[in-house]
UniProtKB/TrEMBL annotation:
This is DUF4179 domain-containing protein. The keyword Transmembrane applies. The chain crosses the membrane at residues 72-96. Keywords: Membrane, Transmembrane, Transmembrane helix. The keyword Transmembrane helix applies. It comes from the Bacteria.
Length: 359
């Protein structure tokens, strides 16, 4: 056998092994699967993988190379089954990941609201035997959510009853944020814990900025848990450097409305603009923050929906760009559950009603 034939087979074997490993995941990623299949097809001289070709292509493709492909047809058959079965974890991952859907309390069909905001970077880094993988991102003009998984070795068992935490933050400093202040709100929510895996959502709000395409960093440093028996105490079990970098190709699903000089209820300033996306609302005003008054949405069916935390569905943040001659105030409302901007006809701030529509 020639030397280049040995190398050729070794490369094919590596691609097939990578394909099998991805298929063995709890939620296989279709983008990663297609990328591996495309690489394997190029190795064997075929065209890029097309799942629509289905079983017919599986039966007829490249018969002359069958002896080299080994278990490839079996693995490909499994891929085609997964791509064909609706309702599987793989099918969910073609749109919004099931863990993010649960995080936002989405009902059936609501994930379609976020299609333009979804990206699947799938980047991984390992240190101290612990791997961190980015599974999916979700962004709009003022916020970024990152779904990631932390996988531990057999020597580190995770007790699901403990209050686990991964120290670190989302670094947006490389993004061209068009903001009067560098203020941001960061957080890290644990979604699920199993004996050797943590699923979490890291997020960053930039209510005084505008998210744009660019490089994003997730910087994590310590894995541990909180004890609350007497006073809060963080117990680290692993320290390392888990620095993940990827490019955010941002498509903003927000609708921005600039009303014609509408005054605030007390006349101290004006409502400058309102930005709506399925998971947030940002009101920019002068004179005072809009959140100083009751704020509610008016829906297509005529009902009103208060934007406050009392009903357990919304959180409210307030930032001000102080120190300026005519400061702007940013009132940020995060939606839980999501709301389609097309279902909102108006925003009411105190007694001031702002009709909404695409700018």
């Amino acid at each position: 056998m020639k030397k280049h034939d040995i190398l050729f087979q070794a490369q094919e074997e590596a691609f097939i092994q990578a394909l099998e490993e991805e298929m063995a995941r709890e939620t296989p990623d279709p983008n990663a699967i297609r990328a591996i299949l495309d690489q394997l097809d190029r190795q064997t001289g075929g065209a890029a993988f097309d799942p629509d070709a289905g079983w017919r292509e599986l039966q007829t493709r490249r018969p002359a190379k069958r002896r080299r492909l080994g278990r490839y047809p079996v693995v490909l058959a499994a891929v085609l089954v997964c791509l064909a079965v609706a309702g599987t974890a793989l099918a969910v991952n073609l749109g919004l990941h099931e863990k993010l859907a649960a995080y936002f309390h989405l009902q059936s069909g609501e994930s379609a609201l976020l299609e333009s905001a979804i990206e699947n970077p799938v980047t991984t880094v390992s240190d101290q035997g612990i791997s961190v993988t980015i599974r999916q991102t979700l962004a709009n003009s003022s916020g970024l959510y990152v779904l990631y998984e932390v996988t531990t070795p057999e020597s580190i068992a995770l007790d699901p009853e403990k209050n686990w935490h991964m120290e670190g933050f989302l670094d947006l400093s490389s993004l061209p944020l068009q903001a009067p202040l560098g203020s941001s709100i960061f957080g890290n929510d644990i979604v699920e814990v199993t004996p050797h895996k943590i699923t979490a959502v890291a997020y960053a709000y930039t209510p005084v900025g505008t998210m744009s395409s660019g490089t994003v960093h997730l910087r994590l440093t310590r894995l541990g848990y909180w004890e609350f028996s007497s006073s809060p105490q963080f117990i680290p079990i692993a320290e390392g450097t888990w620095h993940l970098t990827w490019h955010l190709t941002h498509i903003d699903p927000s609708i921005t409305v600039t009303p014609p000089a509408l005054p605030l209820p007390d006349g101290s300033g004006n409502i400058e603009s309102i930005s709506l996306s399925p998971f947030s609302c940002v009101v920019i005003s002068t004179g005072a923050p809009a959140s100083d008054w009751p704020v509610s949405l008016v829906l297509q069916n005529g009902s009103t929906l208060p934007l406050d935390a009392s009903n357990g569905q919304y959180t409210t943040g307030r930032l001000s760009a102080s120190g300026q001659e005519n400061p702007q105030y940013y009132s940020y409302f995060q939606f839980h559950p999501l709301i389609s901007p097309s279902d909102i006809t108006a925003l009411v701030i105190g007694g001031t009603r702002v009709s909404l529509g695409a700018s």
